[in-house]
Amino acid sequence: MKLLKQHGLLLVVGLLVLGLLSFGVYQANNQPLQTINLPIVENCQLESTACVAKLPNGGEVKFEITPKNAKPTQTLELDLQAKQVDIDSVKVKFDGKTMNMGFLEYNLKPKDSKDETAYFNGQGGLSVCIRGKMDWVVTVKIQIDNKLYNIPFSMDTYYFGG
């Protein structure tokens, strides 16, 4: 009987320790993301060139959309290169500056890395604006550990039918 009580006590203590360890692992893996909104990247228009942004704690990202001066009806190639930074995930979100153009957010997938440079790629598309010209804010969302960096860029599109 005494041996049975000892085993029961050991079982309860073991389950308690296992529960505490599981809770600790859960808490460590479920920390809320700290969002860091960077200022808009100045003097760079994504519709015509690649743009570079520096991250606050070092490293930089180069973001490019092709084809250049694309029509809103074309599929866009979204390419990101990251130097000296270990990125967990990348998303790109397009928002109309003066008009709601719908939810346009795309995930980029990692590609082969070379020489401390990480590459991400994906495809996206835009909505057509009836006014012909649309001003966009293109936000590159980069997750690094428990931080989400929002890097905004400017882009204009023109569409006059056809």
* Percentage beta strand: over 45%
Tell me the structural class: alpha+beta
Give the count of helical stretches.
1
Let me know the largest β-sheet: 9 strands, mixed
Using the 3D structure, state the CATH architecture of the largest domain: Sandwich
What is the number of independent domains?
2
**Which geometry do the CA atoms define?**
elongated
Q: What is the CATH class of the largest domain? A: Mainly Beta
CATH superfamily label of the largest domain: Immunoglobulins
Number of strands: 9
Question: What is the CATH fold-level name of the largest domain?
Answer: Immunoglobulin-like
Main-sheet strand order equals: 1-9-8-5-6-7-4-3-2
| Share of helix, binned | 10-25%
Evaluate the radius of gyration.
Answer: 23 Å
Helix-strand sequence? HEEEEEEEEE
Compute the separation of the termini in Å.
Answer: 88 Å
What does it look like?
With 162 residues, this protein is an alpha+beta fold. It folds into two domains: 1-30; 34-158, Immunoglobulin-like (Sandwich). It has one helix and nine strands, in the order αβββββββββ. It has one helix at 2-29; strands spanning 34-37, 51-54, 60-66, 76-83, 89-96, 104-114, 117-124, 133-144, 147-158. The chain has a nine-stranded mixed β-sheet with strand order 1-9-8-5-6-7-4-3-2, with no helix packed on it. A hairpin with a 2-residue loop joins strand 8 and strand 9. The chain is elongated and about 90 Å long. The model has no long low-confidence stretch (mean pLDDT 83).
